[in-house]
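$ ./design --mode recover --in tokens.txt
reading tokens...
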């Protein structure tokens, strides 16, 4: 066990996975992942080729090139960087090539803002990648290691990204259990994939597809994401058997949920604050529990329905927006459950901090609304004092 940050935990996972190529381009707050990997390479601890490129688009392109040649490959990014490589994320998924990427989430400009928000990560939901989201540095390490095994499974053969809250996890240091290299070698076999570019046996890839074949390819990606649920559960159980670390037999995580009347649903690092708030609210007599979404893709309809179907009301808290509609997590839950009493709260954008007291206030308001049969719709929550800050929008200026 070591006290390390989320970024250091990811770098260690990449090293333990015996990655062969890392495509790197720095962007805050993921930079220290690639700095740590470069340091490992310089010290002789990492036997990988590190490719320094001129942009995030090139970082994903170089990583893709290595992966399609049969090499285990990794990259990391954030915010505008993820948007800049957006074209390549689709190309990698469409090529059915296993690649692992970590996204240290950050607000998207304009205006410039380097702090945490999940909108960058959530904007990739339709790209064809598997998507997990960590809640602490331990999960950042575990999910990164598992991502290689899952994405390289013959029932999947898709890229996978692991998200973690920028600065809150990327730079926060906690105790992390680090599996031994021998344990990881038992857990993670050598890379395999059905198609490999080989100069000795040249083939064409990525050529134009007639309409029906293109549609069948998209259908195959959809089916592979659905089938990955079972793979993820089996990989999680095996990871625990070999490393003794945590319980990954389910895609998502419950906290004091089974006997609760009311459920709070969210993802990421602020689950810790929410759990502390729930502990105190339960002492005050509120029957509330937490359901933490760990996998966005695949989206486990069965697990989610079983966990939440009997709750009197459901509160979904998003650190991201789908402009003009609400929080993306809320919209995903809404399409699954069709619950009469479900409401969404958007907060924490651009690094706005919420503490235990804020969660107690949000949850208490939600329960009161639910008791009145009015737990519906979307609201925006500002921590104390934040609502008093006036923003002069372009429309306001014109008036």
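writing sequence...
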């Amino acid at each position: 066990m070591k006290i390390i940050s989320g970024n250091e935990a990811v770098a260690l996972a990449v090293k333990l996975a015996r990655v062969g190529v890392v495509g790197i381009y720095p962007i805050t707050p993921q930079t220290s992942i690639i700095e740590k990997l470069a340091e490992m390479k310089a010290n002789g601890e990492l036997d990988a080729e590190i490719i320094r490129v001129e942009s995030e688009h090139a970082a994903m392109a170089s990583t893709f090139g290595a992966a399609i040649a049969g090499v285990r490959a990794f990259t990391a990014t954030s915010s505008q960087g993820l948007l800049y490589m957006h074209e390549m994320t689709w190309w990698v998924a469409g090529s059915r090539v296993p690649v692992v990427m970590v996204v240290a989430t950050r607000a998207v400009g304009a205006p410039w803002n380097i702090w945490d928000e999940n909108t960058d990560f959530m904007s990739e939901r339709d790209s064809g990648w598997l998507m997990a989201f960590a809640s602490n540095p331990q999960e950042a390490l575990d999910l990164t290691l598992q991502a290689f095994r899952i994405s390289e499974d013959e029932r999947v053969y898709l890229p996978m990204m692991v998200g973690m809250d920028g600065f809150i996890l990327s730079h926060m240091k906690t105790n992390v259990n680090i599996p031994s290299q021998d344990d990881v070698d038992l857990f993670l076999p050598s890379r395999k994939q059905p198609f490999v570019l080989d100069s000795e046996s040249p083939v064409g890839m990525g050529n134009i597809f007639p309409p029906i074949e293109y549609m069948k390819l998209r259908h195959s990606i959809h089916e592979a994401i659905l089938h990955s649920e079972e793979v993820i559960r089996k990989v999680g159980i095996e990871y625990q058997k070999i490393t003794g670390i945590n319980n990954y037999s389910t895609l998502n995580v419950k906290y004091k949920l089974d006997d609760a009347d009311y459920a709070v649903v969210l993802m990421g690092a602020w689950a810790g604050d929410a759990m502390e708030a729930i502990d105190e609210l339960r002492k005050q007599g509120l029957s509330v529990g937490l359901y933490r979404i760990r996998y966005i893709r695949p989206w486990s309809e069965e697990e989610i329905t079983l966990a939440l179907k009997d709750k009197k009301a459901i509160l979904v808290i998003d650190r991201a927006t789908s402009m003009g509609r609400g929080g993306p997590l809320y919209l995903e839950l809404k399409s699954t459950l069709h619950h009469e009493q479900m409401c969404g709260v958007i907060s924490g954008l651009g690094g706005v901090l919420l503490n235990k007291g804020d969660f107690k206030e949000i949850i208490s308001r939600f329960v009161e609304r639910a008791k009145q049969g009015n737990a519906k719709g979307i609201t925006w929550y500002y921590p104390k004092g934040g609502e008093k800050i006036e923003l002069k929008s372009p429309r306001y200026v014109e008036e």
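exit 0
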